[in-house]
Amino acid sequence: MFTHIMIGSNDLERSKGFYDATFVALGGQRGEVDARGRLIYTHSGGRLMITTPIDGNPATFANGGTIGIAAASKEHVQAWHDAGKAHGGKSIETSPSERPNGAFVAYLRDPDGNKLTARSQPTK
Questions:
Q1: Do 83 and 110 contact (CB within 8 A), yes or no?
Q2: CA–CA gap between residue 34 and residue 52 (Å, rounded)
Q3: Tens digits of per-residue pLDDT, 39-53?
Q4: What pLDDT shows up at residue 14?
Q5: Does the 5-52+65-119 domain belong in CATH 3.40.50.170?
Q6: CA-to-CA separations, 2 to 6, 48, 107, 124, in angstroms, rounded
Q7: pLDDT band with cut points at 50, 70 and 90 for residue 76
Q8: Which of 50, 48, 49, 62 is nearest to 9 (CA)?
Q9: Taking CA 84 as the corner, what is the angle to CA 82 and CA 85, rounded to the nearest 5 degrees?
Q10: C-alpha closest to that of 67 among 85, 50, 88
Q11: For 16, how many CA atoms within 13 A lie in the half-sphere containing its CB?
Q12: Within 10 A of 4 (CB to CB), how many other CB atoms are there?
């Protein structure tokens, strides 16, 4: 259904540090910068792109929006959460924890305020 998700940032260098750390913690690759200056992360057919807004206004986050990121294991989710906090992210919602369906879930806000979650597959 989706080809990509694009979010805005007011500081692409800061965003690159945050997203490089969190995606590497999940076993992914560091992002690349395209010819337009956008950060691009590609993994398992999905793309996350980060850019400064083309209209020149400040980037803002989606109130009520959450970007979900698949993780291979509980350990990957915890590593993602730890890497995010160490690179300017803020832990939100509940502490990383197992859900009733067996999925392990963690939530962060990136340095620009975008709400993210990493979760392992349900086991029940």
A1: no
A2: 13
A3: 999 987 889 999 999
A4: 97
A5: no
A6: 11, 11, 22, 27
A7: very high
A8: 50
A9: 65
A10: 50
A11: 14
A12: 11
